[in-house]
């Protein structure tokens, strides 16, 4: 018998919760890449999650709302994502990279 129940969370679940956490920040217009849709399609998913040695590494692209200060926005997104990964999922976070990939709606 083990010491208690074990939870396994897939990378897709982590990526979706990261996306939702970032979108809750008021200055984020969308979680995704800026530019034309074909370019975003070729560049790959806007949220990437890697798990190494039981630690989570997150990289995400966001588009900011016009008029937002980008450095504080990236910090707010980083904080929201870290809180989600650590508190809601109970996982250890290795790092969060936020890339502001555009401005607009």
CATH topology: Alpha-Beta Plaits
Overall average pLDDT = 91
Shape: globular
> Approximately how much beta-strand content do the residues carry?
25-35%
* Number of DSSP E strands: 4
The ordered string of helix (H) and strand (E) elements is HEHEEHE
Write down the CATH class: Alpha Beta
Please indicate the count of domains: 1
The description of the largest β-sheet is:
4 strands, mixed
Helix share, percent: 25-40%
- Summed up, the helix count is 3
State the end-to-end distance. Answer: 53 Å
Per CATH, the architecture is 2-Layer Sandwich
Radius of gyration: 15 Å
Structural class assignment: alpha+beta
CATH homologous superfamily classification: Cation efflux protein, cytoplasmic domain
Which regions contain 5 or more consecutive residues with pLDDT less than 50? none
Give an account of the 3D structure.
Strands 1, 2, 3 and 4 form a four-stranded mixed sheet that branches. The longest helix has 19 residues. This protein has one domain: Alpha-Beta Plaits. The protein is α+β, with helices and mostly antiparallel strands and 105 residues long. It contains three helices and four strands. The mean pLDDT is 91. It starts with 10 loop residues before the first helix and ends with a strand.
